[in-house]
Amino acid sequence: MRAAFLALAALALAAQTPKPAPIFNEAFFNGDRRAILAGCADKARSIKPKDAKYLAECGRAYLAAMDRPRAIEAFREAEARESKDGQVLRLIAQAWLKHGYKTEALEGYEKIVQRDPKNKEAVTQAAVDLAEVGLVNEAERYMGVLVAIDKDSWERFVMFGRALLVAGQRKKAAAWFARAATLKPNEEKLFLEISRCFAETQSVM
User: Fold this and answer.
1) Is residue 143 a contact partner of residue 158, using CB atoms and an 8 Å limit?
2) Tens of pLDDT, residues 80-121
């Protein structure tokens, strides 16, 4: 009995002992992917412990390393520090989206509209993120929010059109490109950007 107790005590002590910090050498970066993600995130957090955007990015790294509890911890800390920053909220939502957590992602994107509704960049990026993974109806809702803020934002209309091309939604993309072209019929940058969208997107073939 005493031996079993000592063994359990040793295991408990080992669990409480913090892991040694990794040595960021060639062997480390050639090693386990999850260890790299977590190790780099830990290092970034130690350097910038109060930066909400860094915390959000670190949360994404933990999520990619399949460490959901630490990801949630980092996201909550980021949100606590910058609860009304649309860019921070978008980074968190995007992380959930990229790793297949649709419900958490949609909840995260909704916070942008609730807390920082005039952040045109964050609202547009939310629409782009959602469009690129095929959530077109949800994406168009965010573009509706953008249009209510700025109905002449042709650069963002083109950006969203490109995202729709990525999703294979050429007809919907065409509507946004046409909308932008109507606003700026003599803007050469617009037409060059649209041509680049088609050149770089295979889904339109």
Assistant:
1) no
2) 999 999 999 999 999 999 999 999 999 999 999 999 999 999
Query: What SS3 state is found at 138?
Result: helix
Q: Quick check: 67 pLDDT over 50?
A: yes
Q: Reduce the DSSP state of residue 133 to 3 states and report it.
A: coil
Return all residues near 48 (Cβ < 8 A) that are at least 6 apart: 54
Region at 2 (left for phi over 0; alpha for psi -120 to 50; beta for the rest): alpha
CA separation for the pair 167, 137 (Å, rounded): 12
CA angle 60, 61, 64 (to 5 degrees): 90
Rounded CA separation 56/193 (Å): 30
Instruction: Give residue 73's pLDDT band: very low, low, confident or very high (50, 70, 90).
Output: very high
Residue 17 and residue 11: Cα distance in Å, rounded? 10
Lookup: tokens for 114: 């609730």
pLDDT at 152 over 70: yes
Per-residue pLDDT band at 201 (split at 50, 70, 90): confident
Give the per-residue SS3 of 27-89: HHHCCCHHHHHHHHHHHHHHHCCCCHHHHHHHHHHHHHCCCHHHHHHHHHHHHHHCCCCHHHH
